[in-house]
Write a structure and sequence with these properties.
LRR_dom_sf, globular, single chain, 26-stranded parallel β-sheet, alpha/beta, 12% helix
Length: 717
């Protein structure tokens, strides 16, 4: 949920809802935020129940702060259980008479002291998660004796760093052991066992497990003998050393994942699982024989990461039930000897992902995509046909293709079921733009990226956008004003419009829909801006980077919705023309993050006055003076990057003949960057109101809104 702190009006309305609905809403909030809602009397009983129903008993906890960053709120918080001490939990239970349903507990000093209370909590809980770290002060035998005497059953038990071998009693259905050695791993009743023993030694470890075990995961750094129980349904083994498996035919095994860099053939594992449905092989760098995989005739999902590409494995009849194949890696056998690589796949395949392995010879006429395919992702796959065209299946719903060069013929159409369509290349060519006039009704995201050169010549006919389309990104197609009109954005429901590369000179806000929330027009040759963007009342983020906006008159912005304004490398002298709406009375509480790095001629006096006048302004620029560095060090709203880009570089788009001018100013008299500083001296500004500066000493609302996008990485997006 995107929320930075409780909203009185919001929860006043929430209180009017039925109690069961309120409980559902509270369940989506970060648990560390819930105590603040106890002050809302109509819902405090429900809040208390939500808090106490799902607790993590610990002596170490913190309350996360909400963020004002757009779209963040409490999303960085992972508090899915409420952290509380045993003492405070007892107080809460006494006050509200509510016992936890789900408990996660740690071994603490209060554990034994409060055992009578604690054992009562455990017997009343339906789900118990235990997390115990070995200490020299409390032997594990005493801990396990307490657990056995209480007759408690853990849903999950996590044990770490017990120094001596221990015998684990049957008190849990899921057990995780981290750097712990057991006397025996045959633990009755355990369904899931996770072993992590990463210390590397020469001792060979023997593992034998209970026949009750259904899910086994081992991460080890030593040689192992593993006796696999017959009833396993899931198995994960990761080791840098040799692993010897002993097993019968495993009829119930459905999911197998191996990370074994020493094996050369799957046959070495000795694993026989005729009903296997998912196989994941990761970092099996020596594995070059895949024939033994054909035993898995019920296989539905095959994943290979950082392995040799199985050139002859994916034949039409190799896996008659295979639905998805994913490959990511750089290993290709006998690459220098191969003239043609054939990408074939079973006729049942629905998902194909081949990424980051750099084929050197893939001819398009050998690319065989089954008609059943709905998800296609090909990244860094190189096609050597100079005159070849890429063709797509009609049933595709997701398309993501990245390569050096891609071309589509004049009959190309985006498949009629596609929802997500992204093609990216250094050179991207469409023989005809006709496909843009036949967009599928299912389309939601459309991204066309041509980093070096792109061709798609739109006619004067205007595009009719399907109602489902939410986002369009175009890069490298040199969009001019006529093309912008043909794109007909204003008659769409687009919420994201990002275009890089073009020459439109004068920007007309009427060419964009009211629905747009994220508008980016980068390196578009814009020289003149409209007087107002206020028509775009839903605009959340506006990016005008790499446009030469040297002379800008006052520009009104939709401050009620806008949170981020990106003006990187715009040859700006002044920031204030973009802030006229923020000084209006109705916008005095508005907040705006302005990212204006790469403007070497910025007027620092204008910057100082803008920050002083507008408390909701956060600004990021490059430093042209050491004083700015000192100011930014003491500011919560002003960030001064130390690196100043070369204004005459080709990337910046500035003229080599243009004079770089920095206005004269008194660096000692610069505003210190925080409207809440009691030490600031504003005597040099007659129009500044000193009395307002101390009103909000503890206001947390002036956090700098960080903009994740960078335009300095050589690409627009």
């Amino acid at each position: 949920m995107v929320i930075a702190r409780p909203d009185v009006n919001l929860f006043h309305e929430v209180a009017k809802l039925p109690s069961e609905v309120v409980a559902i809403i509270l369940g989506y909030l970060p648990n560390c935020m819930l105590p603040e809602l106890l002050y809302f009397s109509p819902i405090k009983k429900i809040v208390a129940s939500t808090i106490l129903s799902n607790v993590h008993i610990t002596e170490i906890f913190e309350k996360h702060e909400g963020s004002d960053v757009p779209g963040v709120g409490y999303s960085e918080c992972d508090c899915n259980m409420f952290r509380i001490t045993l003492e405070n939990l007892k107080k809460g239970i006494d006050k509200w008479n509510i016992y936890p349903k789900t408990i996660k507990t740690e071994f603490t000093d209060s554990f034994e002291i409060g055992w009578d209370v604690f054992s009562k909590l455990l017997t009343k809980a339906s789900s118990i998660y235990g997390f115990f770290v070995g200490t020299s002060n409390y032997p594990p035998e005493e801990l396990f004796e307490l657990l056995m005497d209480s007759n408690v059953k853990f849903e999950s038990l996590h044990l770490m760093y017990f120094l001596t071998p221990v015998k684990l009693p049957p008190v849990a259905t899921s057990v995780t052991l981290h750097q712990i050695k057991l006397d025996t791993y045959v633990i009755p009743g355990v369904k899931q066992l996770i072993l992590r023993t990463k210390s590397i030694n020469q001792e060979r470890t023997n593992f034998t497990f209970s026949p009750d075990l259904e899910d086994l995961r081992i991460e080890a750094g030593s040689k192992m003998y593993v006796n696999l129980p017959p009833n396993l349904q899931e198995l994960y083994i990761s080791s840098t050393k040799t692993v010897n498996f002993r097993s019968e035919e495993m009829l119930k095994l459905k999911h197998l994942e191996l990370q074994l860099p020493t094996i050369q053939s799957f046959e070495e594992t000795g694993i026989r699982a005729p009903n296997l449905e998912k196989l994941v092989l990761s970092t099996c760098e020596e594995l070059d024989c895949f024939d033994n995989l054909k035993q898995f005739q019920h296989l539905k999902h095959l994943v290979l990461n950082n392995c040799t590409y199985p050139t002859n494995l994916l034949k039409q009849k190799s896996f008659p039930m295979l639905e998805s194949f994913q490959y990511s890696g750089t290993y290709f056998p006998n690459l220098d000897k191969m003239d043609i690589v054939t990408l074939t796949s079973p006729s049942t395949l629905k998902m194909l992902i081949v990424a980051n392995h750099g084929f050197s010879h893939v001819f398009l006429d050998t690319l065989s995509l089954p008609a059943t395919l709905t998800y296609l992702k090909l990244v860094n796959v190189v096609y050597n046909d100079d005159d070849g065209y890429f063709h797509l299946g009609e049933n595709l719903q997701y398309v993501h293709i990245e390569s050096f060069k891609l071309a589509f013929d004049r009959n190309f159409r985006i498949p009629h079921k596609v929802e997500f369509f992204l093609v990216e290349a250094f050179d991207l060519y469409f023989d005809s733009s006709d496909f843009m006039y036949h967009l599928p009704n299912s389309l939601i995201y459309l991204t066309l990226l041509a980093h070096e050169g792109g061709e798609m010549h739109l006619t004067n006919q205007r595009i009719k956008w399907p109602s489902m389309v939410d986002s369009i990104v175009l890069d490298g197609f040199n969009i001019d004003y006529r093309t912008l009109i043909s794109l007909n954005f204003n008659e769409s429901r687009l919420e994201t419009i990002r275009i890089c590369g073009g020459n439109i000179k004068k920007l007309d806000v009427d060419l964009f829909p009211v629905s747009v929330k994220d508008l980016a027009l980068m390196d578009m040759g814009i020289q003149e801006l409209p007087a107002s963007f206020e028509k775009l009342e839903n605009l959340h983020r506006l990016c005008l980077a790499k446009n030469r906006l040297k002379k800008v008159n006052s520009v009104k912005l939709p401050i009620s919705s806008l949170r981020v304004l990106v003006l990187r490398k715009c040859d700006l002298r002044l920031i204030s023309p973009f802030l006229v709406s923020m000084v209006e009375e109705e916008n005095r509480d508005a907040k705006l993050k302005v990212e204006a790095t790469g403007n070497s001629n910025i007027n620092v006096i204008d910057v100082r006055k803008s920050l002083k006048a507008i408390k909701g302004l956060s600004l990021d620029i490059n430093c042209v003076d050491e004083a700015l560095n000192r100011i930014s060090d003491n500011s919560t709203r002003f960030s001064c990057s130390s690196r100043l880009p070369d204004p005459y570089s080709e990337e910046s788009g500035f003229s080599e003949t243009e004079e770089v001018v920095v206005s004269d100013y008194d660096s000692d008299g610069l505003y210190n960057g925080s409207v809440f500083s009691p030490d600031e001296d504003d005597s040099d500004d007659d129009d500044d109101d000193d009395d307002d500066d101390d009103d909000d000493d503890n206001d947390d609302d002036d956090e700098i809104i960080k903009d994740e996008e960078s335009v300095d990485n050589g690409k627009c997006w």
